[in-house]
Amino acid sequence: MADHYYSKRPEAAHERRSLETVLRGRTYRFASDSGVFSKQGIDYGSRVLIEAMQLPVQASVLDVGCGYGPIGLTAATLVPEGHVTMIDINERAVQLAKENAERNGIKNVTIKQSDLFAEVKHEHFDVILTNPPIRAGKETVHAIFELAYEHLNESGALWVVIQKKQGAPSASAKIESLFGSVEEVTKDKGYRILKAKKNSGKCNRTIDLNLGL
Q: Boundaries of each Methyltransferase small domain copy (predicted)?
């Protein structure tokens, strides 16, 4: 398998860089490196999600596929009375995210290396955020949606950013099949922000029992 941002242990030679950017009115400093997603700067899709996401200040939040941390760390500053768990399969990304939490003085986070939801399988959350790893394939992306449903508290919300040309219509259809409905919160330059709220009394789930839920 080629070395890419969805590798557990990227083998690309290190090429660290420092980034500074403003997200939701706050300046953040991030360390990035080769072998992780969007190493040269915060990708546009993540920015659209960050600007759109609405989080209760006491929320328990999960960032799936956190990379080096822009979505999850911004979320942590928006939930000062809550907590954010950040997971990624890529060990290099996880180490960078931990470093970036320290760089920015963010304490209300837990960051773990995890293949899908393996390391949070007994946990539940009020909000799940994801810029899903499109290059990992449709099966993996849809598994994230299925597992998100199982790991949300009642009335919890899933927020997803995805490009129209990279599967937004099928992603929306999949999420609707799980949650019963899905809202397109906003769209910007081909990126769609999808939101679905869990209400088990109205859902039409199509969970694959082989996912080990």
A: 28-195
